[in-house]
Amino acid sequence: MLRFFPFTSTATSDPVDTDQGLTSLDTTLPESADVVNSCRCCGTLVKFPETVTKYKCLVCQSTLQVQSSAGDQSKSRVSPADGVSYSLIKGKIKECEASERGLRTYHDIYRPLEDLIRQKFSELEILNNSFLRANNNKKKSLKNLSIKEVQDTFNAIVSLPTSRPYYLLLLTVNDLLRRPTSDLSKPEDLVWLLILFELPTLSDCLYHNRVASNTTHRSKLDTPEVKAISYEIIKRLIGYLASSSEASTVEQLARKFSSSTVENFGFKVQLLNLYITFHLTRLVNAHYEDSNQGNRSPDYSEYSESSKLNSATPPPSSSSRPMSPSARRFMRLPVSFQTGFISWAELSHSRASTGPKPNEFKLRVMHYGSEWHIRTAARLLSIFYIANRDKLPHYAFYNAVVDFISVRQDYETWQSSFVKKDTNKLIYDILSAASTNIIDLTSQPAKKTPQFTFCNYPFLLTLGMKISVLEYEAKKSMERKAEETFIKALDRRKAMDINLRIQVRRAHIANDSLKCIKLLAEDELKKSLKVEFVGEPGIDVGGLKKEWFALIIKELFSLDNGLFYYEEDSHACWFTPEPLELSLELYHMVGIVLGLAIYNSTILDLRFPLAVYKKLINKKIRFEDYKEMCPTTAKGLQSLLDYTGDVEDFELYFDTTFKNMFGDKVSRELVPGGANIRVTNENKKQYVSQWVDFYMNKSISTQFESFYRGFHKVIGGNALSLFSAKEIEMIICGNCETSIDCDSFKAITKYSGWLSTQDALESNVVRWFWNWFSDLSFDKQKRFLAFVTGSDRIPATGVSTMSFKITRIRCFGNVTRLPVAHTCFNELCLYEYATEEEFVSKLNMSIYESEGFGLR
């Protein structure tokens, strides 16, 4: 049973300990009601008597205050004039340098600065009133904190010819972080944490394989002492900021992060991801070294001996073991992880390269489920994710090392924490991460709470990982339905199909598909899809369903059906306002088709704006979404908002006019009685809001509801909630790349019919093929993909994750046949033609003149 040290007040006149306001250390516990709370740093649940005012957490070693005492309140009366500012520090530095006399040490020269640092940075309330902007009389708040002034101040201290003042600064703030003199319950009490979050050495302590570019000119701060103390600071900073549970505090933190520059915002996101990478790597090292270093924080000895923190480094003595070959293969990370941060492009390129694959070991929930370092970093990163607002692309939050966890086990653990497991709502709380440890003072057994899982923070998972989870859930559901069908067949003594079969005529594909789908029960949609074209040969192993999806989408989205229309400005597809009542069945079918496409890993040629996918996962539609669909109208609405004159001169009212599916003009009120409500300067924001809401929600509510029910009739699991709207668009529509890199496509190609890959590459037909492919435009590349794979889109995860195969067909004599494609297997079969001109001619005829199983 884990315990903590409780601190209580006594009436003795000779206090045992006066450190940080603690009057005594009493190990006898008074009889009183117990309070259950969580550690303000590591999130570990603690249970203590209600009379306790302070306690020391044995997990993170922080002495924390339960409630503010009268003494603390008296010390909190600090004027903004007592705070720290850039001018104060810079002035003191100039004063120290100006007063230099004779040959003195740097310690003597900068002693006044060190005294100032010790005085100002040791008091929480002084820091909370520091670096505030001049507006609002320098009122203490997160909003008024000047991050630029904080950075300039720290840089001024770092640039001194001696590292002693900065090292003293680190020691001072570390003591303050270990024993904060506030319960940190109010947003304005977190100003000091954001100030310390700008310390320039926080990232230097988080590199396992840092390679010095020039070992002869190392920074004066690149020492084990600085790295060790920087780590102690960053782990508590992350813990305190992440433990902000009040909605108002989280909102103010998100607003503050959102107001920072893109550069600073991106660096903080990378820093938190690096912190997670740091601890995941230590867990791997702990596994291969049979040690428990992953379950605790690194100490000074690990920073002073590089082989302890980085087992791949040669040890200073024979007593330390290097990382095993298996561990080195596992941690075969890109070079940028050794020298800096990694990009998504670098990660994709590294995975496509040759070499041993790290498949010997996967981190499981048992390894990281109780890691408070990872949990708090993920929780704080979620606040940055909320604050992002298009500052960074969604993949900037991906953590590449998370790909080395057992994601299926993580998903199953996450699933088991839900009372209702089969729901399509966004049921995870992006800001919740339960603790696995309870420090209990009583003799009662500790209760277990759900473990930390990465699925609780899906923005950390790469798109490939999320797709693997979705495919895993789909496969498991298909297998379950097949088993149920088999058991029913035995029980009823009647043959039953374990697949979802759709038989259609090519000329009547929409009507035949609708009839087949209407006859199916809802649970049958989760079976594996098999398509048959009536009157045509072929067994569906994946190719026929790709063709069916392409044809049905082309038919349903045809302008002749009137289900959708296309915006001329954005070329985006949107629901037709006020369609015929009979069209609701077709909207339902469109939703089912999109769900089946995801369920059967098929890419569709759609041009929906991002708003459709946001609505599918119940995300709120914003003005930016309307701007994507109707840029010209949105520009006019923005001009109305920015107009400084009297908008009544425009004679606008709360109504709108549009064309229905027959081309007739229809007028509708944006609000009840809107035709008589004039737009003024006071209500123009409401007018724009109602305009956007009408076209994006109200005018299509019936159509979208039918579409939504059809989609979620197929996609009914929790896996979809792991995806953002942009990621859902990518898995449905594929990657948005504007060209296919020939070298990347060549790297993933496999060959059959030759003795070796080298023989294939040296053969005439293969050389002719790559010469031909390298000269294709993007439109012709898409036609080729459609011929070989059944879809003209590449997968969401890029061309490097595709499969493509070239097979040689032996034929003696003069070859007159055309090349053949097996779309089920992404395979192109080539004959050995006599000349390159003949090869190109026959390949072009196959691609541009084929339909179904033959020529047009």
UniProtKB/TrEMBL annotation:
Gene Ontology terms: biological process: protein polyubiquitination
Catalytic machinery residues: 824
Residue ranges annotated for the HECT domain, each copy included: 521-856
Gene Ontology MF annotations: ubiquitin protein ligase activity
Stretch list, region Disordered: 1-22, 290-325
Keyword list, A-Z: Transferase, Ubl conjugation pathway
Reactions mediated catalytically: S-ubiquitinyl-[E2 ubiquitin-conjugating enzyme]-L-cysteine + [acceptor protein]-L-lysine = [E2 ubiquitin-conjugating enzyme]-L-cysteine + N(6)-ubiquitinyl-[acceptor protein]-L-lysine
Enzyme class label: transferase
Annotated CDD domains: HECTc (cd00078)
Positions with biased composition (Polar residues): 7-22, 291-310
Matches recorded under InterPro entries: E3A/B/C-like, HECT_dom, Hect_E3_ubiquitin_ligase
Protein EC: 2.3.2.26
SMART domains per record: HECTc
Entry protein name: HECT-type E3 ubiquitin transferase
Originating organism: Wickerhamomyces pijperi
